[in-house]
Each structure stands twice: as structure tokens, then as C-alpha cells.
Fold these 2 entries.
Entry 1:
Amino acid sequence: MAIDYEHFKKKLETEKKLLEKELGEVGRRNPDNLSDWEATPTKKDSSQADENTTADNIEDYEENVAIVNTLETRYQDIKTSLDKIKNNKYGLCEICGKEIHTERLEANPSARTCREHMNLA
Ligand SMILES: [Zn+2]
């Protein structure tokens, strides 16, 4: 096995922490399901809320939902990758089972497939 698990584990854990921080800024963990994140409305001074502010808040909230969705997808991929490290399955293509090139993993430690199958997963 040519893949340096420890090296990628560190990279994944660093990215996971970063994502948790980013997610914390636009959302919060779903209290009923801690691996799920939901967007939170932006905190603005509601004492001066007029119609414009309300519309702005809704737009901000929708933006947060989009950001949370993107971040959450990455977050889940990272968690899946960390699980794979635990199960000694990290770095194998989900389609063909071959080892993913270290170069590709360097660029994207949560890659789930080899380069050939990157559009199929
Ligand atoms: Zn493959």
C-alpha cells in the first residue's frame, strides 16, 4: 500500500475542522441529527426591521442555505473518507476499486474515484 494514511488523515481532519467552522458561521447542527446541518437566519438588528431589511434577510437566508448545502456535501465526503481510513479502504476508487493516484488525493483528499471514473460517482 503506497498511500500514506496518516498524512491524508491529518489533511482530512484539518479540512473537517475548517468546514465545521465555516458551517458554524452560516448554520447550526440539527439537534435531532448531529451529522446534519441547517442554515440559520442571519442575525441582524431586528429592532429596526422594515420591509427592505426583511427582504434582505430572506435573501441572506437563502444564500446561507446554498452555502450550507455545498459545505455539507464536502463535509460528508470528508467524513466518508475518514471512515474509509479506519476501515483500510481509503484511496480506492468506488467504481473500479483501484488505488487512486496519490497526486489526485493530494489535490482532493476526499476523492472517491480514480481519475478515469471521476464523473461517474
Ligand atoms: Zn476507477
Note: Strands lie at 27-30, 33-39.
Entry 2:
Amino acid sequence: MFRKQRLQPQVRFGIDLGGTKTEIVALAPDGGELLRRRVVTPHDDYQATLSAVARLVVEAERDLRVTGSVGVGTPGSISRATGLLRGSNSVCLNGKPIRRDLERMLAREVRITNDANCFALSEAIDGAGRGARVVFGAILGTGVGAGIVVDGRVLDGPNAIAGEWGHNPLPWPKDGERPGAMCFCGRAGCIETWLAGPGLARDHGRVTGERISAEEIAARAARGDRASDASLARYEERLARALAHVINLLDPDTIVLGGGLSNIGRLYDSVPRLWGPWVFSDRVDTRLARNVHGDSSGVRGAAWLWGRAGS
Ligand SMILES: [Zn+2]
């Protein structure tokens, strides 16, 4: 089998295994980047994908002359019951014992979690949620995902779905919001159908007849376009309701936003002004923060699956 590693490795390798590219980073204990490389992910070939990951680790260790811990972030989750990956958009990985196979190839324990958990962990350890005890990291991009980190560790429940808030319904729906658009998950009106980029674009199109992207809506709103400003205001109010649900349930110290929509600067002022009426408290001290690490949170969070120095 594989050798057990010390709990505090000197070098942590993080791998972001995506559908089109696979990236590796090597982090020093202080979070400094010792190395970063990227390769194209082999298309629809499980064995070739495993080999690509293993090669990145072996070559990085050879070049840095170290042995490190290995964490992997990838879409989907590993079933606790079967040990098999499920729900990945890289469908050749689904139903495969990817952790066990990587452990065999690399002769060590490997930790794997999904990309939303990596995002939350990266921001909690040395990003916008640094120093916070409970961090909710939400990705608002082409979809909506989220992860929860408590005391520097990913909260990983028996179903491996902690934080999957994007497939809860939009809370306190108004008359015009029911039943909502169909979601790929099979239900209608999921938070994702409103708060992902395509959801904002659809809502704007429904009201104005214009078919433009979420990015364009934000750009036009910033230039003073009234229709786009109104669409963004509806988006902010829905985000406030959706996050109020999170605050009522989890009461995180910090909520960090990632994904393309997190670049809309006005969210960080407007949403905390709007969420109060929906939160079951006379005041709300929760911080809403923009991510620090951006597109790097996948690899960095994967590396931090082996804990930060001193934790
Ligand atoms: Zn859904």
C-alpha cells in the first residue's frame, strides 16, 4: 500500500483537475508558490488522465527535490459508500475509483474534494476569509456552487454535499418568481437558475427582450444603463435572500464570493444592506468579501487539504 505521511508536510502539492486543463501548484508552509504548471487534460480517457496527474507530481518532485503531500480538486464528489467519483462533468471520471488509483500510482495517501470546497478552503486559509472561524465560499459563475470551511477544514458530511446550496429553491419567492426556470438537476427555481451568470442573463432577457451576457449587463449598469441597472438590482435582492438563508442556517463569520459574477464590485455594498430583513437577528455582522485568489483557488485549496502550518 502507501506510506502514511506526516500531518504537516513541508511541501503541499495541489492539483486542479478540470475538464480542459490540469494544473499543479507547490506551496511552501507559508503559502508561497514554489512551482506552478499546467497541461491539457486528456480528453475522455481515464487512464491517460491519471497518468497526466501522476506525471505532474513526479516531475515537480524531481525538479524541486522534495516529496510532498498531494491534494486534488475536481468537479463532482467521491461517494463515501462506494469510493467512486460521481457528478463530474468530465464523464470519463465518473464511476471510477480515482483516489484509490492515484494513491497506488503515487504510493501515498491522496486527498480529493470538489472545486467549490477548494475555493472555500483557499480563501479561508490565506484569502478573504483568513482568520475567520466559519467561512462560506460561494461560486457564482456558469453555475452556483459553495463550500463550507470550519477551523481551517472543509466540512465534509456523510453525503459529501455540504454547501450545495445552489440546488435549494430561491427563498421567499415572489409571485413572478414561481415556479422559476427548469434546472439541470430536474427541479425548477433552484438558486442556480437565478444567480448563475446565465440566470442573470435570462432574467434580463425576460424583462427587456435583450439577449446579452451577465458580464455585459454589469458593464452597462456601471455606465448608467437603466434597464441593466434594474436587472442587477433584482439580482442583488435575490442574492441577499439566498445568502440570508445561509446566515440563518450556518451563521458564518465570512461569506466569500468567487466566479465571474464576484467581479461586480457593487454587490459587496448592496447585498449586506439588503439581507437584513431576511436574517433572523436584530443585526447582521456577517462579512461579505470578494475573493483574493481568483482562478488560483482551485489549486491552492487542493494543496491546503493537507492543513495549514500549525493547524
Ligand atoms: Zn437545481
Note: The chain has a mean pLDDT of 94.
